[in-house]
Amino acid sequence: MEEKQRIALPFPEAQGKRVNRRRLLAAALGVILLTGGTAGLPGAQAYAQTQQAAATIDTAKLKSISRLSFPMRDEKGKLYTVYIFSNREKKSVTSEDEAWSGAQKGDVVYSGAYRAALAKQGEKSGKVQSVRLSLESVNTARRDSFRLAGDGKSRPDLLFLGEPGGSNADFVYPYVITNGTLHSLDFSDAKGAKRSKEGVAAPYQGIRGLGGGRIQTRVYSNTDIRYYFSTYKLDLATLTLRHVDDCYRYSGDWPSTAGARSYLASLMGSAKKHVLPSDPRIKIGMTWAQVRSLLGDSRKKRSDEWFEYVGYGKSWIGYDNTLDAGSRLPSTPVEALAFDLGTNENDWYLMPEQVREWLGTPTEEYDNPAEEGHIISYHCPGGSITFEYEEEGSPIDRVTIY
User: Fold this and answer.
1) pLDDT at position 325, please?
2) Would you say which domain of life the source belongs to (predicted)?
3) Which DSSP helix (H) or strand (E) runs through 195?
């Protein structure tokens, strides 16, 4: 059996970059699907010409030829059945040599060019849909495709058609019924720019519904040794799932608090107020004597090109580095506030991509040779806030407010 593969994540910006790997995966699946013998569904091939000539199919026929079917309600609460079928479906049984994380030995896997038909409750025929389905195979031993129930208010039922992408994740493609038609949905970034029709979620219960028209996905990242949760909000007008929040967690349990978007907004709020996020009592401009009266003395020190910092836990108070501790006056002002982001279970884990998405285009980005890293910087009224990291792919390790 194969080992867990790295799921390269999972931001909407990155999803479009997985296309080549997706095609390679499809090619690998093709070997599994086509080498074990084939068998069409009863009557499917004979019905092909009839289906192509007609826009509707009797529901009795749809039930007999469909590989998958799902009850779904549209945005008005009307109930439909979505039938997924292929006129030329092929069957294979996975052998021991062909087994991988997406198909165990003995699994029955079907493949074909799948289409959808939509039948309204009580009607005796279903209408073939024009939407293109991103589905190439169905493993009957897995539940990669499923209906996510709506919230009864701002989000109707959603259909996710999925295929295995490895031991950690499925590739998922969302669909919705509106105005009596099945539509595909696009994942978009925080600004609403469409990125991809493909999402990533953990196999089995890797997507849940939230209130306010939102859904949340979960997937494990081997590289980050954490679960990545991403939240999207449905916009029926644009047929998109818009990215509205995300976070990394050690635990795979669904988070009950806001994610990186809210946290970064709070950091920017602290920068605008010129206060230390972990202790708002400490402000830029207050004196060394005032800091000592609140936090006491500390022997923990470090310095950079501009400031000498005195450390308290993970927080750092920066003073003019031309003055050593012996010559620093009680009236010496605080000029910088910093704090380290650790990698422990309860520490915030932020990636540079998250900073750029939730705070927008940086004022500047540059290398920091003195610290052998990189800096993302944003100006704010009367100051700035910076985020430091070692290299692309590594998390933010320090935040500084000036």
Assistant:
1) 57
2) Bacteria
3) strand 194-196
